[in-house]
Amino acid sequence: MMLEHGGLVGTEPFAATHLGERLPAFGWLAQIAMAEVRLLWGWTGLRVFDALCWLGGFLVVAVACRRRDCSAAGVLLGLAIAFYVAFPTASIRPQSFAVLCFGVLLALLRLELRPWRTTLFAVPLFLLWQNLHPSISVAAVALGAHAAIGWGHWLLRRGPPPWEITALVCLASAAMLATPDGWSALHLAGENARASAAMGVTEWLPLWHSVNRGGVWPILFVIAVTGLLLVRHPRRIEPGELAVAVVLLVMTAFATRFVLFWAMALIPVIARMLPSSAQVPTQVQARMPAVVAPLLFLATAVLMPLRQPTHFIETIPLAAIGKLHDQQVRGTIFTHIPWGGPAIDIGYPGWHVAYDGRFYRYTPEEWAFYRRIDRDQVPLAEVLRRYRPIAFVLDPQWNRSLIGELRADHEWEELSADRVAVAFKRRTGATP
């Protein structure tokens, strides 16, 4: 829609209960970029593009570490450990741009350029980052941890005051407001986080939550391996880099979405641990990054998406939504919330949705109402009164009560049913 109209979409077009309200511009630049790639090269092209962005963030850190005299073996070990932690979080979404931007930031810190050059790169990087994905606060926190170590050394008279890093902290903090949403971006981000946690989105829940306990063991393993390396080579520790990794680990403990950034911050910490002369012969060592990194990059980011045909996870009921679309119904569609996005993609502008996965879009009261629906505490009549839907696409596990009432109501026709989804439409002649 932005590509078609040549500008931002300022009012809500999808959510039936919020039509015409102001539409936040979350990740607007990423939306434009990913929409353009999808239009040009389809889903396979978007998979390749996203993978290049995601892996590019990791590899730019690795290249910077190698250029600053880290051994090839150390860099590859850092990459291996980071990938081990981060691969389960990889998915096609604007966060891949945040990975790329954070990688560039870590590379700038590792290269230790002159202050004016670092700032010259950092300012446009921060502006792009916040408009691609609203997570520049991660940069502000990471830089703040790095600066705190510098100021601690200055107080102990072990080094100069870290004015450069402190200035970057201020610039990253200011960039949080450098979006079309301005000051409201902070409020929207907070509302999105609160709604996501309330709705049980796993990446917004702490590590000790029951749904995340399976992911604790890989993190504990990596902590143990990294700790062992640090204990064995304490003189190779760079306190600022270690502080960034520690702070991001604490953030990961409280919200697992930050595990991706923590994994990236481990690369420079681990890359320092293995000296250049202790691992492999010099000629082989010099060639390893030039051979291994491009192969890893190309094989994972390009060859695999081209080799494996694009498919969608079976828990997205595209067949049921498509069958409903074939009926040419127009109006509000009530779906299980993860399916609101596919319904919009397939049915807009003929369809509006009662809910979709944009947690910041709906009020806390609306999410509380939806949770009551999931608990079978809301009768069909109340759902019909509030949303006046023309069709339903429901999950047989989460929406048992609604499905039962719809099957018993002669005004509703069941179009399809399987273990993934049950679809209904209002019978011809029935009036809301």
Shape: elongated
Q: Helix fraction?
A: 55-70%
Strand content: 5-15%
Number of helices: 17
Overall mean confidence score, pLDDT: 90
Oligomer: single chain
Q: Number of domains in the coordinates?
A: 2
The total count of strands amounts to 5
The computed structural class is: mainly alpha
Sheet with the most strands: spatial strand order: 2-1-3-5-4
The secondary-structure element order is HHHHHHHHHHHHHEHEHHEHEE
Q: How far is the N terminus from the C terminus? A: 30 Å
Q: How would a textbook summarize the main sheet?
A: 5 strands, mixed
Describe the protein.
The chain has helices at residues 2-5, 28-67, 72-86, 95-111, 115-132, 136-155, 163-175, 184-198, 216-232, 239-254, 259-271, 282-307, 318-326, 340-347, 364-374, 380-387, 400-408; strands at residues 331-335, 351-353, 391-394, 412-417, 422-426. The protein is elongated and about 80 Å long. The protein has two domains: 31-307, no CATH class; 318-426, no CATH class. Helix 14 links the parallel strand 1 and strand 2 (351-353). By secondary structure, it is mainly α. It has a five-stranded mixed β-sheet with strand order 2-1-3-5-4, sandwiched between helices. Residues 277-285 have low confidence and may be disordered. The longest helix has 40 residues, at 28-67.
